[in-house]
Design brief:
This protein is mainly α. The protein is built from 4 helices and no strands. The model has no long low-confidence stretch (mean pLDDT about 85).
Length: about 100
Amino acid sequence: MFLEHAPVEADHCVRLEQSDYVTLLWTAASEVPGLLITALMIERIGRKKTIAVELAGCSAMFLLMLICPIHRDLFMMFAFFTRALVTGAFQAAYVYTPEVSTMYF
């Protein structure tokens, strides 16, 4: 057969704990403040600068998560800001795209 499934070894499986679900909930909730901050930034500094600032901030937070050996709570804070910034950057790009597009349907 084309794709054969390898047997799953029990040593490599890790059960999620309640703290993992709490972390996921908090990082998912970060999208709301990210969108609100993006709406304010778009009006203050413009669309292109908003996208640039948010992507640069997202990159900095992501690098901090990769470089620094950190505690779980600090990791969750970095993940919160990373997700807020990247969500905001994509929403700013979504707002900016129709303004520069020359295609009409």
